[in-house]
Amino acid sequence: MDNKKRLFVGNLPFTVTEDSLTELFGKAGKVASVKIITDKYSGRSKGFAFVEMEDEKAAEEAIKLYNDTELEGRKIVVNVARPMEERPRRDFGGGDRGGGDRGGGGFRRDTRGGSRGGGRY
Questions:
Q1: At what angle are helices 56-66 and 18-26 packed, to 10 degrees?
Q2: 3-class SS at 9?
């Protein structure tokens, strides 16, 4: 049976590494995994991570030890991670670039009559 407990760790300094988090949380109990979330384009940390502890007791100890404490000058947040929710696919528009009737266009004749001036004949 899998008793691992996943923790959310937020407000991390951008200099923190997965190895340093593994070492830090290892003081609370056995760490199963650490994943710092990074921006997919720049590769830079987004300032939060998920730490998976081997059991409930280690997770509770990590929360007690580190939630609302300072790490490299920043007050971090440590709590039980919520399960990932199924999110709808984001639509930024522009998927269907078909014709569509937008009106307008075409040639428009000036029906007001008279000279518009400024033209050379």
A1: 100
A2: strand
Which residues make Cβ contacts (< 8 Å) with residue 93, sequence separation at least 6?
none
Distance set, CA 103 to CA 88, 95, 106 (Å): 32, 21, 9
Whose CA is closest to 53, among 3, 17, 11?
3
Q: What is the DSSP string of 12-34?
A: --TT--HHHHHHHHHTTS-EEEE
Task: Please give the pLDDT value at position 114.
Answer: 57
Q: Where are the domains of the chain?
A: 5-80
* Domain 5-80 class in CATH: alpha beta
Q: What is the pLDDT of residues 69-100, one digit of tens each?
A: 999 999 999 999 998 777 677 777 665 555 55
Residue type, 84: M
